[in-house]
Amino acid sequence: MTYGRDALQRKMTAYARAGWQGVLNAVFPPVCLLCSAETEQAGLVCAACFEHLVRVEKPFCVRCATPQPTVAYLNAQGECVRCEKAPPPWAAARAAFLYEGTARSLVLQLKYADRVEHTGFLADHLKRAGQDILQPNCWVVPVPSHWRRRLWRRYNQAALLAQNVARKAGLVCVPDMLYRAHATTRLSGFSRGARYQEMAQAIALRSHYKNTLRGQHVVLVDDLLTSGATASVCTHALLEGGAASVSVLVVALVPMQKEIDLDCPISETA
């Protein structure tokens, strides 16, 4: 079997990387992202921690990603009663996990403990959960953070997730399309109505994207979906800017009865 020059070079590069990875694994055995138990390869969680990942599986509402006991709770379009009565502005929502157990720990460590290495693992599961909305030629856009929060945290976790998902799915990521027009109070403990009021006019589209955005399908990426206030404001900004549609893709869905204590420091969850 013969190979072209490029194919042979790619194959040799892959062998070299695999060899170096083997050396690294021998010197520094890969460990679980959470508990430091040994794993087969780097960037994973161990079997014990994986058991506490609660995936969002069918049947779930196609508009808000909320799991349902049976398909009988969904209408013909796959929407739950709440979304049928008051549809969110986005076209579809997908979530990888419920916000509990291992998923909660991974998100909190990413947000508050500089554990940016979690983004690779989480992006793999975002790609899995969003495989039907991550269509060819769509744009991947993160929920923006205010510059003061980025200065304190040094990164926007939604942007890291969006960039990883786009790379894994072979799509374009536009990390600076949206921006926070003004800082907002942390929304933990706010009622649903108060969240919407706090977020009103907080997020805007950068003017130089108005022409290029027209007719584009956008996947909006964030770490959590709670009341939907932030995602709604982002969606309105994108649609008003000319986007053909907006879908939402998040790491974890917060059940309505648990929409409290979402922004607590990592020390409170250790």
Can you tag this structure with a few keywords?
alpha/beta; 7 strands; 10 helices; 270 residues; 37% helix; disordered C terminus; two-stranded antiparallel ribbon; five-stranded parallel sheet
Describe this structure in words.
The protein is α/β, with parallel strands linked by helices. The protein has ten helices and seven strands. It has helices spanning 5-27, 47-50, 81-85, 101-112, 118-129, 147-153, 157-169, 192-199, 210-213, 229-240; strands spanning 92-98, 139-142, 172-173, 178-180, 203-205, 217-225, 245-253. The strands form two sheets. A five-stranded parallel beta sheet has the order 1-7-6-2-3. Strands 4-5 form a two-stranded antiparallel sheet. Helix 10 (229-240) links the parallel strand 6 (217-225) and strand 7 (245-253).
Instruction: Characterize the largest beta sheet: strand count, sense, and whether it forms a barrel.
Output: 5 strands, parallel
Overall geometry: globular
Number of helices: 10
Order of strands across the widest beta sheet?
Answer: 1-7-6-2-3
How are helices and strands ordered from N to C? HHHEHHEHHEEHEHEHE
Quick structural gist:
This protein is of the alpha/beta class and 270 residues long. Helices cover 37% and strands 14% of the residues.
